[in-house]
Amino acid sequence: MPDTSAHQQLPPQKTPRWILLALSSGAFAAFNGLFAKLTTDTQTTAFAASLLSLFGAGTTTTDDHPILMLAIRGICLALNILCNIIMWALFTRALTASPSTTKVSITNTSANFLVTAVLGMVVFRERVGGLWWLGAAMMGTGCIIVGMRDEDGRS
User: Fold this and answer.
1) Which of 68, 71, 39 is nearest to 60 (CA)?
2) What's the pLDDT score for residue 6?
3) Does 108 map to a domain?
4) Domain named EamA: which ranges (predicted)?
5) Is residue 30 domain-resident?
6) The domain containing residue 80 runs over which residues?
């Protein structure tokens, strides 16, 4: 009987669960930062002013509606705390699901780094300069190197 083991196709590998947990944790960390900033930032005042004009308050300012400002900042604070709780729960679960805490930490940090930058560009219209892109490329390269090292069985 011929040996067909060398010609058998391996089933597609499923993404390890810890990767999804670490990526999600990093994303929630970024949202945690977003809501923290919205709790205290002037962008929140602009958002409240746009809500006032949307509901037909006309030319009134947010100073005329302190309860609305307090409510929006309170909602942002509550979302900040909720995202923080979710982030830590996901991160802790990723650490227990992975054989490598280093890989979890790097994956989490990378996701946080990238999502924070995108949220900064979209929500706060922040510019991301060349050094940021260089840092992102270096972080991506580091993730690949550490991932390859751990897959080879080296620690």
Assistant:
1) 68
2) 53
3) yes
4) 17-147
5) yes
6) 17-151
SS (H, E, C) the chain: CCCCHHHCCCCCCCCCHHHHHHHHHHHHHHHHHHHHHHHHCHHHHHHHHHHHHHCCCCCCCHHHCHHHHHHHHHHHHHHHHHHHHHHHHHHHHHHHHCCCHHHHHHHHHHHHHHHHHHHHHHHCCCCCCHHHHHHHHHHHHHHHHHHHHHHCCCC
Residues 86 and 29 sit within 8 Å (Cβ to Cβ)? no
Alpha-carbon distance of 144 to 141, in angstroms, equals 5
Q: In this structure, are residues 88 and 29 in contact, taking their beta carbons and an 8 Å threshold? A: no
Note the pTM of the prediction, 2 decimals.
Answer: 0.76
What is the number of residues in the chain?
155
Classify each residue of 79-91 as buried b or exposed e, where b means 16 or more C-beta atoms within 10 Å of its C-beta: bbeebbebbeebb
Split the chain (155 residues) into runs of 10 and give each run's mean pLDDT. Answer: 56 77 96 91 78 69 76 92 98 94 89 90 86 85 72 49
Taking the chain, what is the end-to-end CA distance rounded to the nearest angstrom?
41
Whether residue 47 is contained in a domain is answered as: yes
Say how many domains are in the chain.
1
